[in-house]
Each structure stands twice: as structure tokens, then as C-alpha cells.
Amino acid sequence: MNFTAKSPLYWLYAALTLGILLAGVIAVFDPFVASVLFGRPVKTADDYTWVRLAGMRDIAIGMIFAAMLVIKEQRTAGVLVLLTIVVPVGDAFTVFSARGASYQVFIHGGAAIFMAVLGMLLLKKR
């Protein structure tokens, strides 16, 4: 199956891309809300800087992922997804170390699992 709009993998990858971009945009424009959603609420304007930096990271990753959609690079998309699993895993550990088991830890962990499965499927031969 080709990596086109007719492929379910294309749309799963597009959903991941959109989610990452949306998380980044929220972090840049409303760092307090983003920090709550992330699992580490911040209270001061100085802390907002770090949330915005994480948001820019997410926007950059989302734009790279979006480029793979545009040029229809399935295998490269799979490699990128697998390489960037380190982000939600790191996020899950960060939240867990600060708050223990919370629903945000499971969201970050779930994202890592989704990315692992999606990345492996994208790497399968067409």
C-alpha cells in the first residue's frame, strides 16, 4: 500500500503530526494550560519560558513529520517516529518523577506505545 491519502497509515501518521503541532501551538500561546495538560503545572512567568521552549520543540517535530506527509516518505516517516519516541518517554519520566502515577504519565506513555507501533508499521515493506 502506498503512503497516500488512501492509506490508513497515512491518516494515523497525519493524526500524530497534527497532535504534536497542536500541543506545540498551545504551549507557545497558552503555556499555563499546556503545562497543566503536560502534567507539570507552572505558576510564574519565568516558568512559561520553558513551556514555550518545549512547545517550539513540538512544533519543529510536527513540521518535520508534516514534510514526510507532503513528500510521501513512508519509510523515512517510520524512522523519524521511532527516533522521536524518546520525547514522550522522557516526558512520561519527567511527570512521573514529579507527580507519581497520574493520567498524564499514561498519556505520554500511550503516545510512546502508539508511536512504536506506528513507526514499525510504517517501516514494513509496502
Summarize the structure.
With 126 residues, the chain is mainly α. It has one domain (8-123). 81% of the residues lie in helices and 0% in strands.
Plain-language structure description:
It is globular and about 50 Å long. It starts with 7 loop residues before the first helix and ends with a helix. Helix 1 (8-29) packs antiparallel against helix 3 (45-71). It has helices at residues 8-29, 31-38, 45-71, 74-83, 86-99, 103-123. Helix content is 81%, strand content 0%. The protein has 126 residues and is mostly helical. The protein has one domain. The model has no long low-confidence stretch (mean pLDDT 92). The chain is built from 6 helices and no strands.
Question: Which descriptors would you attach to this protein?
Answer:
globular, 126 residues, 6 helices, mainly alpha
Principal-axes shape call: globular
Structural class: mainly alpha
**Low-confidence spans: pLDDT under 50, at least 5 residues?**
none
Helix fraction bin:
over 70%
The major sheet is characterized as: none
Give the termini distance in whole angstroms. Answer: 5 Å
**Percent of sequence in beta strands:** under 5%
Quantity of strands, as a count: 0
Radius of gyration over C-alpha positions, nearest whole angstrom: 15 Å
Number of H/I helices: 6
Mean pLDDT: 92
SSE pattern: HHHHHH
Number of domains: 1
